Amino acid sequence: MISSAEVADRFGALRERLSRAGGDKVKVVAVTKGFGPDSVAAAIGAGLADVGENYAQELLSKSNSLSAQPGIDLQPRWHFIGRLQRNKIRKIASLVHIWQSVDRPELASEIARRAPSATVLVQVDIAGKDGRGGCPPSEITRLVRHCRDAGLEVAGLMAVGPPGPPELARPGFRLLSTQAADLGLPELSMGMSADIEVAVEEGATMVRVGTALFGARPR
Fold this sequence. Notes:
The chain is α/β, with parallel strands linked by helices. It contains nine helices and eight strands. It has helices at 4-20, 37-45, 56-68, 86-92, 105-114, 140-149, 170-183, 196-201, 211-214; strands at residues 27-31, 50-53, 77-80, 96-102, 119-123, 153-158, 187-189, 206-209. Strands 7-6-5-4-3-2-1-8 form an eight-stranded parallel beta sheet. Helix 1 crosses helix 2 and helix 3 (56-68) packs parallel to helix 4 (86-92). The model has no long low-confidence stretch (mean pLDDT 93).
């Protein structure tokens, strides 16, 4: 079991890291992928209202579990941050606060059908890694336009940095920041436990953090 006190201590240390990098106002999304529903309850108890999930079934299961727990009267603001399958959208459409991983037009169209006027982030591939999701940088403007034409609110851009030393992520994060500024998009979701300092230095408004809050992910 993960306790709220443990998460609160780690959240405090994380806030210090963010502050030293100049990110006092950066929003933290607690990523509970692979952890049980207790991790979500602990995050809520530690003051983390935004929780990210990578899999539709896991999000749905945790949401149902929270609703069934006595004394838990607060659902988090769920962020969907993983590779998204069109056939799973309808199952979680009523729960998701922000869809962070919209990377192709057909996803945008299905979200608009199931959750009209939903808030989305366009995910961009800054690492060039197969299987990690994201549209090519050359397609950002076109996809943002498609989302808006479908009636969605495009709040910003999202990206996953490449594996390896944090500095490897800097060029991609800088590109994302420039693109968001050119399009007038306020939100930049980039940076995870290992590279949050670089992300903040390059303009992140939102970071997605798992291990720095909950420890090593269970096998």
